[in-house]
Amino acid sequence: MFPWPVQKYLDDRAMNCVESTRKDSDFGAMRLCVLYLEDSLGPLQYVLPETHMLRLNTMSEVLGRNFTVMAQGTRTELFKKHDLDEPTGLLPLTQMHTLIDKSILGHSHYLLPSGRKDALMVMTADQLNQLVEESQSEKVGFSSDSRRPWPPEHDDESMILASVQSLTSLRIRQRLIETLEIPPLPDSARRILRLRLDPDARVEELASIVEMDPSLNAQLICWASSPYYGARVQVSTAYDAISRVLGFDMVLNMTLGLSLGKTLSLPKDGPTGLKPYWEQAAMTALAMQRLIQKMPKNYHKQAATAYLCGLLHNFGFIVLGHLFPMHFSLICRHIEANPHIPVANIEHLLLGVNRNQLAAWLLQTWGMPEEVVIAIRFQDMPSVSPEPDLFTRTLHLCSQLLSGAEADEFITMKLPLSYDEAQNVVESLMIEQGEQIRMLANQMVS
Q1: Vertex 89, ends 84 and 94: CA angle to 5°?
Q2: What is the DSSP string of 209-249?
Q3: For a Cys-Cys bond, which of 107, 156, 374, 419 suits 30, CB 3.0-4.6 Å?
Q4: Which domains are present in the chain?
Q5: Mind listing the pLDDT tens digit for each residue in 86-109?
Q6: The predicted structure's pLDDT at residue 308
Q7: How far apart are CA 292 and CA 411, in angstroms?
């Protein structure tokens, strides 16, 4: 049964709609989603295929209105008012102005959200047309097909150059050379990278590099002293943190990731600050470390590199803001407005490249380890990742678990760790250490 208001609406109109689960794709029907937007003139609902991205900039230019995503509290009240768990495809039910994207037309069957999280409605074209007529919807064309239009083997640098050249031709940037100016690698990061290649490197050398950067030194001591690591000794120097609590490899990769993360800055008018970025980075880094440690012992030596992959997994977010500052807010608005579309696809539609391509290109330019560059570049599509792919697959699985997304069975089959084991590791970390990790992230922002 659908939620009672939905079922009553259908019964009153003798519309017999079949129920389908979200995993059921046997109908060959077009899946639709409903987005809720608002501006100073009021709210509206926009219906489009689940494969399409709503272009807010195009919509604003044509309609002369500046729409944003409806506030979460407003949406919650709207659903609660109609006894729903989530959006429904019964457009007249909300009595809201409705825009229908023209791309949905011409199909025989449709899958619509039912207002219940675990069920969809299957409708015929005639039934959908009846809904459209009753809601007095307008037919518009403000969306683009978001399905990944580029092969992963494309040369990233060429794509980045082409993207910036295209944007420059629109006078969004004045000079290509200014737009793609590569920031210098921080001195501390350069020293740490050299030390990473030295098999005879000593704790004293690493401590000396860290102590030359007061901010890095303070953060390291705070981390080593935090309840998360349960240090039973007083930590007052970088040497103490390395030798008595965290270990050489751990500090090497931790300080490298922190140093790189502070190299670039987001635009001042960006929609979010860096706190959410570092919270996600810290959680992913520690989850990656624990997942590797849960694998057979011969993998444990890879834990420090896995930590670095996690710490830098969303480094492209900062690179994006640095290279495309005038687009940054627009990109973030589109990501917020299109939660049904993968972030990489949205960025590619707007810019021609995505954040992981940008991050991998810059990290490779800086001479970062190949396995880290590969993991970050292919984390969203591990099935086509070149070797070595241990970190790519683990990072993909880790991101799925942290976001609550469904697991990719093919990816988990290629890891020396079962999905259930990985899920237990990540869930335990989030439940038991979530608050402490947020405290560590606050230290990263400072």
Answers
A1: 60
A2: HHHTSHHHHHHHHHHHHSTTTT--S---SHHHIIIIII-HH
A3: 107
A4: 4-145 (3.90.960.10), 156-181+264-445 (1.10.3210.10)
A5: 888 888 888 888 999 999 988 999
A6: 93
A7: 15
Report the SS3 class of residue 123.
Answer: strand
Compute the distance between CA of residue 235 and CA of residue 223 in angstroms, rounded to an integer.
Answer: 10
Own/partner pairs, 386-391, CB within 8 angstroms, 24+ separation: 389/414, 390/299, 390/302, 390/415, 391/288, 391/302, 391/305, 391/306, 391/309
Average pLDDT, the chain: 84
Half-sphere exposure of 187 (CA within 13 A, CB side): 7
Q: Dihedral (C-alpha) 226, 229, 232, 236: value to the nearest 10 degrees?
A: -50
Mean of pLDDT values over 161-178 = 49
* Residues near 82 by beta carbon (within 8 Å), at least 6 away in sequence: 3, 5, 88, 93, 94, 115
Q: List the single range of 153-162, 167-176, 178-187 with lowest mean pLDDT.
A: 167-176
Closest-CA residue to 123 (of 234, 18, 262) = 18
Q: What percent of the chain has pLDDT over 70?
A: 88
Query: How far is the C-alpha of 31 from the C-alpha of 292, rounded, in Å?
Result: 37
Residue 207: partners with Cβ closer than 8 Å, 6 or more residues away = 237, 238, 239, 242
Inter-CA distances, 419 with 281, 292, 300, 381, 433, Å: 22, 13, 18, 18, 21
CA-closest candidate to residue 177, choices 186, 166, 185, 168 = 168
Q: What is the mean pLDDT of residues 323-349?
A: 88
- φ/ψ of 146, rounded to 5, equals -95, -5
**CA–CA gap between residue 364 and residue 112 (Å, rounded):** 44
The Cα–Cα gap between 155 and 360 comes to 11
For residue 364, the tally of other CB atoms under 10 A from its CB is 18
Q: What are the start-end ranges of the H helices in 38-71?
A: 56-63
| The pLDDT of residue 167 is above 60 | no
Specify the pLDDT at position 161.
Answer: 65
Lowest mean pLDDT across 118-122, 169-173, 322-326: 169-173
The answer to whether 123 and 39 are in contact (CB under 8 A) is no
CB atoms within 10 A of CB 70: 19
DSSP letter, residue 301: G
Percent of all residues in the chain with a pLDDT value above 90, rounded to a whole number: 32
β-bridge mates for residue 100, sequence order: 47, 139
Contacts (Cβ under 8 Å, ≥6 apart) of 304: 247, 249, 250, 252, 253, 289
Token pair for 170: 């629109």
